[in-house]
Amino acid sequence: MEDQIRDKLAHLQDLVRKSPSPKAASQKPAKPDSLSTVIKTKRDADLFIAQLDAVVRLAREEYMDLKGKEV
Amino acid sequence: MVKIDLGNTYELMNASLDREHTQMEFLCPQTDGTARIIRVEIKPHHDPFLTGVSNLAMGPVTESGELDDQIRLKHKDRAVVYSTLLFCMLGFLNQYPDLTVGLDGSDDLRAAIYHSIFLSNGNSLGDYFVSVGLTGT
């Protein structure tokens, strides 16, 4: 991670300490989104998360391979 | 093409980093010379089966203090707006690395914009995020 970004993240933590807590958001009915149209049961969610975990793991490996080749 | 630069973002006015409700706000110049307060909110996805997934929303703050993610604004610099959005997301994931953030967009146009941002900035964003594109059928 670039030092500049690391510094910005540290500055963000300072801002969080100084900022007042936000007001609790009003409870509006959740809007349907793309995921809610395909995830109807716990099994659907478990399958989705398992697929997501597998894809993330693969993406991480590909990124590490790419970075290894650049070095 | 929106060029993302996490080092070039609007100054945040306030920020909270809570697992159940993260909120950050910044002043965003518009093309007409005015500026709007833009809020970024990250909350757990409403689906009770999807634990560990958070949803991100962005939009101006209305008079009633709510976030409006439907309105179309004319930002002076879209690249800085989206860079700020992604920096907010980075701040959240840096605090809660076990969580996943979903960037769906409140409509198809916004979803397409987010998709294209990750496609065209994949190399630089790959240093900070593991991103997965999902398409619906």
Short synopsis of the structure:
The complex is a heterodimer of chains A (71) and B (137). Chain A has three helices and no strands. Chain A has helices at residues 3-18, 34-38, 42-70.
Question: Any overview of this molecule?
Answer:
The complex is a heterodimer of chains A (71) and B (137). In chain A, 6% of the residues are buried. With 71 residues, chain A is an all-alpha fold. Helix content of chain A is 70%, strand content 0%. Chain A starts with a helix and ends with a helix. Chain A is built from three helices and no strands. The model of chain A has no long low-confidence stretch (mean pLDDT 82). Chain A has helices at residues 3-18, 34-38, 42-70. Chain A is flat. Chain B has helices at residues 78-95, 108-120, 122-125, and strands at 12-16, 22-29, 35-44, 53-60, 100-102. With 137 residues, chain B is an alpha+beta fold. The A-B interface holds A 1-2, 4-5, 8-9, 12-13, 15-16, 19-26, 30-31, 33-39, 41-42, 44-46, 48-49, 52, 55-56, 59-60, 63, 66 and B 6-7, 9, 12, 14-17, 21, 23, 41, 43, 45-47, 49-50, 52-53, 55, 65-66, 87, 90-91, 94, 100, 102, 104, 106, 111, 126-128, 130-132, 134, 136.
Blueprint (SSEs and pairs):
The complex is a heterodimer of chains A (71) and B (137).
Chain A lengths: L2 H16 L15 H5 L3 H29 L1
Chain B lengths: L11 E5 L5 E8 L5 E10 L8 E8 L17 H18 L4 E3 L5 H13 L1 H4 L12
Parallel strand pairs in B: 4-5
Antiparallel strand pairs in B: 1-2, 2-3, 3-4
